[in-house]
């Protein structure tokens, strides 16, 4: 079954805080390049930047603590 | 507390000696499945022996079952072999995805609470049941974001997955509490909106508050702090509202306190269950009278 483009984009963002910064520079272009539909792009424009940065940082720390 | 309720700990090698010494105070042990996938025959034999002395569950953290994409057959087969070898009371996994499109998140994340994720989750869970031989209990996760593309609330989505799959739920009360705090919601209202009739197991753990880039403080579930008082209060209410037997597991992943402190947390969980159960008996008795 095909994975939802939104889910793939979230995985990409959560896997790297650098991706989050690229996304936040130009959300619409980034989202379209990830294959999101127009409706999904509208959804992603609403995402709270601080919460997204916080989440990506938290995932990065959890990956780091697991590798110790 | 009902005789059928159980209270125990998440197994960590750092705690092994003390756990074995205090098995008379521990009803259940939860073992992280992925840590045992490459275990020696000797260790697996030891786990099997342990499972004969105390109830054990295997807890998966990397299948990513709640996704619009397909679960890895190879990963499922490894879990199936472990379950067959250890013969736990049950196994569990998370209501989360951990990878998509070749990107590994390396931790548990919430996919959109939407029909495509629900359909994928139900397919993956059915496949997990076929390969492993039993449906996993499903655990709610802590999340700092409502996934974009969601058309349901977290608890609506969880209810659809758990009831749709015919699965039992492992309700993590600290994850529930952290999400309620971080999204400005009432944790007791969130508890009420969960599929409580499906809850079979409970996780209790702790976390810490941290300031974000916007200076807003958020509660992070970290398993290295004691469960805070509201988590025990939530357990009391759950024991009142869910009459079925509950297996309560205290999770601790680091900064281990003296084992006496963990035993105290087990005792506190038993006391919270007892309060909820007593209130339930009182109401039932009044209804009969």
Keywords:
heterodimer, A: 68 residues, mainly alpha, 5 helices, 78% helix, B: 289 residues, alpha/beta, 8-stranded parallel beta barrel, 9 helices, 12 strands, globular
User: How many distinct beta strands of chain A?
Assistant: 0
Largest sheet of chain A: none
Q: Helix-strand pattern of chain B, N to C?
A: EHEHEHEEEHEHEHHEEEHEH
Q: What is the average of the pLDDT values of chain B? A: 96
N- to C-terminal separation of chain B?
22 Å
Summed up, the helix count of chain B is: 9
Distance between the termini of chain A: 35 Å
What this model shows, in words?
The complex is a heterodimer of chains A (68) and B (289). Chain A has helices spanning 5-14, 17-25, 27-33, 38-45, 49-67. Chain A has 68 residues and is mainly alpha-helical. In chain A, helix 2 (17-25) packs antiparallel against helix 5. The mean pLDDT of chain A is 90. An eight-stranded parallel beta barrel of chain B has the order 1-2-3-4-7-8-9-12, surrounded by four helices. In chain B, helix 4 packs parallel to helix 5 (154-165) and helix 8 packs parallel to helix 9 (259-288). The two termini of chain B are 22 Å apart. Chain A binds chain B through residues 1-4, 6-8, 10-12, 14-15, 40, 43-44, 46-48, 50-55, 58-59, 62-63, 66, and chain B through 67-70, 97, 99-101, 103-107, 109, 111-112, 114, 116-117, 120, 123, 143-145, 147-149, 212-214, 216, 218, 220.
Summarize the structure.
Chain A has 68 residues and is mainly α.
SSE topology:
The complex is a heterodimer of chains A (68) and B (289).
Chain A: H1 5-14, H2 17-25, H3 27-33, H4 38-45, H5 49-67
Helix pairs in contact in A: 2-3, 2-5, 3-4
Chain B: E1 6-10, H1 16-21, E2 28-32, H2 41-53, E3 55-59, H3 73-86, E4 90-94, E5 97-100, E6 103-109, H4 115-132, E7 137-139, H5 154-165, E8 169-172, H6 173-182, H7 187-193, E9 199-204, E10 207-211, E11 217-221, H8 229-241, E12 247-250, H9 259-288
Parallel strand pairs in B: 1-2, 1-12, 2-3, 3-4, 4-7, 7-8, 8-9, 9-12
Antiparallel strand pairs in B: 5-6, 10-11
Helix pairs in contact in B: 4-5, 8-9
